Amino acid sequence: MPDLLNWLLVFLRAIGLLTIFPIFSGPDFPVILRLALAALLSFLIAPLLPVVLVRTDFWAVVGYMAMEVGFGLLLGFVSRMVFYALEVCGGLIATEVGLMLPAGMNPMGQPGSSEMSTILQYMAAMLFLSLNLHHGLLAAFQGSFTFLPSGGGHLAESLLLDVLGRSSHLFWFALQVAAPVLAVTFLVTVVFALLSRAVPQMNVFAENFSLRLLSGLTIMGLTCSLMAQHIVNFLHRLPNDLLRVAQLLGAV
């Protein structure tokens, strides 16, 4: 019975993580496969953990199960933050270059995502898998049981402040990634504002739209390596972020 309860609590934390975890949480990703991955992860991790010394009456077990699902969802939210930031960044770029109107289908996010958001999120997913960063994140998930044992943990003010700080940093990260495109489109807007004063007969709106689109896409293509470096730097921080949140959850 303790071994089964131990496995179940690990499984619930894993399924909570995979529910929000990027790539695996997409609407096109089969739910059965997500459950199978969580079960496999639990079978690999549960034997390495000590036996859970918790109450085994019905309502206590239900409470522990709800806690583990909530902790898994919080860890998944932290691991997905970079994709939320890239969605904001793609929205900024699409608004500046004039591609915000034709919203496309994004398999990893909401159906109304802009095309730029979809491109950046695909880039992050490919970097995440090609650089084997998911191995570090899985190791961090296993390490979370060191700071946050199954059936333990609680919410604290320090955790709230930490998550709020990470959320506010997302906007700064999105602005850093989109900065080259924003700078160029701003210069184009200033130039056409001066031309509209010098040549009133010019159709500034039509000319401005096409040039902003062309210059924005060109700069985005030229700075893809810089954007990728920013994304990789953020992705490398994810294992430590997960362990930090687990440590705050398990702090007495």
* Computed CA radius of gyration, to the nearest angstrom: 23 Å
Total beta strands: 0
Give the overall average pLDDT. Answer: 81
Q: What's the helix count?
A: 10
Order of helices and strands: HHHHHHHHHH
The percent range for strand residues is under 5%
Q: Which range best describes the helical content: under 10%, 10-25%, 25-40%, 40-55%, 55-70% or over 70%?
A: over 70%
Structural class assignment? mainly alpha
Catalogue the unreliable spans. Answer: none
> How far apart lie the N and C ends?
28 Å
Tell me about the biggest sheet? none
* Domain tally: 1
Shape from CA axes? elongated
Describe the structure.
- The chain is mainly α.
- The chain is 76% helix and 0% strand.
- The longest helix has 42 residues, at 157-198.
- The protein has one domain.
- It has ten helices and no strands.
- The model has no long low-confidence stretch (mean pLDDT 81).
Secondary-structure blueprint of this entry?
Blueprint (H helix, E strand, L loop, with lengths): L1 H19 L10 H15 L12 H22 L1 H17 L17 H16 L2 H15 L9 H42 L5 H19 L1 H13 L1 H13 L2
Helix pairs in contact: 1-2, 1-3, 3-10, 4-5, 4-7, 5-9, 6-10, 7-8, 7-9
How would you concisely characterize the structure shown here?
With 252 residues, the chain is mostly helical.
